[in-house]
Amino acid sequence: MKTEFIQELKTKHRIIIGDSRNMEEIDDESVHLMITSPPYPMIEMWDDIFRQLDERIEKTWEKMEVENSKKRKEKYIREIYELMHENLAQVWKETYRVLVKGGIACINIGDATRSFNGIFRLFPNHSKVIEHCERIGFVTLPYILWKKPTTKPKYKGKGAFLGSGFLPPNAYITIDCEFILIFRKGELRKFKPHDELRYASRYTKNERDSWFTQIWDIVGIKQTLPEVERRVAAFPEEIPYRLIRMFSIIGDTILDPFLGTGTTTKIAINLKRNSIGYEIDESLLPVIKEKVGITQKLLNSDYSVKIVKRF
Ligand SMILES: C[S@@+](CC[C@H](N)C(=O)[O-])C[C@H]1O[C@@H](n2cnc3c(N)ncnc32)[C@H](O)[C@@H]1O
């Protein structure tokens, strides 16, 4: 009886082509879990999107590029970094509004290393996101370090250790982890005793033992994937798969405000959760459609997908 009910459950999915700094299409306290990977501040591949999103970033960037004084250049770099995080924080604020009490937000973000002004340095994006989310009111929970296959160690900010790379002290630690930050809105979610859907969503002992640890060794998206998957730095399906199983129950609603190629929607469909995804770049729509299976007939399917174009 119970299993039949779950098999019949039809889930709904919305893909909104629009800017998630405003999520007016979503009611307050209607989302149970948010999973996302935003553009990473100070990573070169995302410079253009931040410059297009906020005129202040574009203007400061232009001033920074032509500035000769190192001191003033440094000030502009700091301002740009702050503004990039301010833009992301608007999405975290909207997420807070739409999450139910006890709802969880999982943010996959990597720190950036970059040379400006002739100085190689770290931009610790994960700590900026934590600062903003705490200010918004989120409760910070222990986070996950996603260990990616190692790239070559760096020497003086350059690609690889050269012969002299064995001599202390001028080499740098290689960034080979990204963060999956975890936050909760307020107190724990409440359920009725023996909630059927909650029990049907349980994980196994092996899953619990390997998922609720701090280091996840998951192979990233392969370099042989289509250009578009690399262009948006799609995350491996294993990431949303685990997080959805860990922090939501069947029938819940999952939000991804930076949908990219639609990985979160695809996994939400497979795991019988509803979903909402925002993506600002309309050119990704054919890829999203392909990934979530709406190029095939959805008739008699156990899920429906609605695409909304805001522009
Ligand atoms: C790192 S990618 C997400 C990749 C995704 N996890 C996947 O598996 O394909 C970030 C995405 O956010 C989109 N984006 C950036 N700013 C946005 C905004 N303000 N609103 C909606 N989407 C945005 C970018 O176009 C990009 O596709």
Q: Keywords, please?
A:
311 residues, alpha/beta, Rossmann fold, 35% helix, 24% strand, binds S-adenosylmethionine
Condensed summary:
The chain has helices at residues 2-8, 47-53, 55-66, 70-98, 125-136, 196-200, 205-211, 227-231, 238-247, 263-270, 285-292; strands at residues 11-17, 31-36, 99-109, 112-116, 119-123, 139-147, 154-155, 171-172, 177-184, 215-217, 253-256, 274-279, 303-309. The chain has 311 residues and is an alpha/beta fold.
Topology:
Elements: H1 2-8, E1 11-17, E2 31-36, H2 47-53, H3 55-66, H4 70-98, E3 99-109, E4 112-116, E5 119-123, H5 125-136, E6 139-147, E7 154-155, E8 171-172, E9 177-184, H6 196-200, H7 205-211, E10 215-217, H8 227-231, H9 238-247, E11 253-256, H10 263-270, E12 274-279, H11 285-292, E13 303-309
Parallel strand pairs: 1-12, 1-13, 2-3, 2-11, 6-10, 11-12
Antiparallel strand pairs: 3-9, 4-5, 6-9, 7-8
Helix pairs in contact: 2-3, 3-4, 4-5
The structure holds S-adenosylmethionine (SAM).
